[in-house]
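Researcher: Let's continue the batch. This sequence belongs to Immunoglobulin V-set domain-containing protein, and it's 91 residues. Same format as the previous ones, please.
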Amino acid sequence: CLHRIPNYNQILWYKKSNQELQLLGYMYFNNPNIENGINATIEGDANKDKTCTLILESLDLHSSAVYFCAANTVTNTQPAYFGPGTKLTVL
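Model: Same format as before. Here are the structure tokens for Immunoglobulin V-set domain-containing protein:
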């Protein structure tokens, strides 16, 4: 995930399955924070023109979903901008 929005310093990662959106974690500047029970890591940087990567671990059939990133500010005073998403199918 990469954005070009000045002053946006947070990338949020979501999983969408069965019409439910689940927050997996976020990167604030270059400090990752994974939600409890999520088997993944987040690497990189959330600042403008930097790359932030979600790395999923121990995939199974329940990992099949669409994964989204969203750029935002930590204060949430501006709109979040979502990427197009990536569909993952585990066979």
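Researcher: Any comment?
Model: The chain is about 0% helix and 50% strand.
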